[in-house]
Amino acid sequence: MKFAAGLQAAFMDLELHVKALELPVDELAIKQELLAKKLAEVEEQHRLAGDLLAGDRKRALVFLESQVDALRQKAYAHLSNIAEELLGSGYRPGMEQEAHLVLSQAVQTLFEQELTAAAELFDEYMTGILAPHRQKADALISAVREAAVAVFAIDYQATEQETIFQMKRQPYWVKDKLQTGVAVIPHAWLESLLPDTLRLARIRKRLKQHVDALITQNVENLRWAILQNVENAFRAFSEALKVRLARAVTSTNQAVAAAAAMKNDRADVAEAELSRLRTAAQEVRQLMGRLTVLQNNQPK
User: What is the DSSP letter of 170?
Assistant: First the structure.
């Protein structure tokens, strides 16, 4: 639950602020420096995690191109066979128009099937490829809190981690992009004077061009849609981690820095603030306890 995660973060900040205010100024300065070093290590881990994510993004794009190439070959073989079957009985009037209609229907059926297959394949692929990155992201956020816990000896145990990122699958296909239109068929009077064998050869050539155009248009549409989903998934994951990590680091640093500034400038105010923060931390702890009881009593 986000509410539980928010309570934990608030409690952590309060406890950190309390611990910082309780320390002597000199000791607090030493701990600030130690905390800064630990957070710098977390930032370095984040950089390395980004490099690994970029590598997996490149591998995902290579995988996409291999799947698109396989689909292109499959579609070409399928549609070419249909065209050849229609031409196999020799020339007859109206056969080219018939071939275009049959090919249009075949394209509709083929690519709607491939839409479903592609969606399932890339859902599974992206889920698998991002799983270790999601675990690493959770660990990085935890490392920020753990650094503060270790440096300031805070009695804090997280009971829940907020999910860094959940992939939202967007449609891989917009059906109105499906290209099934019939190309312009020439009716030059000169062609009508040719022998049937030559007329058939010219029709075969045009049908091949039509098949090539259908495949190029539809495969590229599918490729582009999947590419955008893949790119968006990696971008969203990277941005979500960056924002969450920056928020955790900033929150941790600000709690300590605020306490240090108060101790240095207004010792009398610091004492009053310490009392207020202790009370607030206790209230949040009690609220967390009640929330845990409610969660445990919910029917399973």
Answer: P
Q: Residues 160-165: contacts with CB within 8 Å, 24+ apart?
A: 160/1, 160/4, 160/5, 160/8, 161/5, 162/2, 162/5, 162/244, 163/134, 163/138, 164/134, 164/137, 164/138, 164/237, 164/240, 164/241, 164/244, 165/130, 165/134, 165/137, 165/236, 165/237, 165/240, 165/241
Tell me the pLDDT tens digit for each residue of 143-181. Answer: 988 888 888 877 666 555 545 444 455 444 433 345 555
Contact 103, 214 (CB under 8 A): yes
Rounded to a whole number of angstroms, the distance between the first and last alpha carbons of the chain is 16
> For 236-255, how does the pLDDT look when each residue is reduced to its tens digit (9 = 90+)?
899 989 998 998 888 888 88
Q: Read off the amino acid at residue 55.
A: G
Query: What pTM, to 2 d.p., does this model score?
Result: 0.74
CA 169 to chain centre: 8
